[in-house]
Amino acid sequence: MSEAWHRHLDYYLTGMQAHRGVPTWFESEWPQIERAWNAGQRRGDAATNLGYLNAALPSMAPLGLWTTAIAWITLGLPWVRQAGNKLSEGVLLENLGYSHFLRGDRERALAIYEKALALAEAHPRQVYTGSLLGRVGELDAAIGQPQRAGLLAEGHHHRSSG
To answer: Within this chain, do residues 11 and 89 fall inside the same structural domain, yes or no?
Structure first.
């Protein structure tokens, strides 16, 4: 990566970390944040791009950038899989499912949540399920099956502790 682009990425990565939870800053800087992301895709390495993605995701939610979040997460999943980082893979799958849910694609969200739960079952000490089960519960309530989330959580608890 050229020195200028690396500085550009670093500047906005640092800015997103410093202004986490401040959607007005993120919104005002969004064109440059997106430009830096695109440059990173062309010139950067997976670790740098993944750090950038993780810094950007929390600020995308308040602005409703679900389509962008889906695209960025889809690019990031192969990086965490290649690195063998099950925790990051689980977090990205949860965020991907939630982004689809908020866009109204409940079936796709459910399919992704099921992948995340399978990952958690396969790697119980490496993938957290608390917020994931909460997201599944939110989806189940939205589709009129709130009891399914409780059964799913109970089944997951028995499988991972037994």
So the answer is: no
Give 150's DSSP letter.
H
**Sorting pLDDT into bands at 50, 70 and 90, what band is 155?**
low
Kindly state whether residues 53 and 74 are assigned to the same domain.
no
Give the end-to-end CA distance of the chain in Å, rounded to a whole number: 48
Burial annotation 68-80 (CB, 10 A radius, 16+ → b, else e): bbbebbeebbebb
Q: Is the confidence at residue 55, as pLDDT, over 60?
A: yes
Q: What is the number of domains present in the chain? A: 2
Domain that holds residue 38: 1-63
What is the arithmetic mean of pLDDT over 130-158? 67
53 vs 72: CA distance, rounded Å? 7
Maximum CA extent, the chain = 54
- Tell me the three-class secondary structure of 34-92, residue by residue: HHHHHHHHHHCCHHHHHHHHHHHHHHHHHHCCHHHHHHHHHHHHHHHHHHCCHHHHHHH
pLDDT at 4: 87
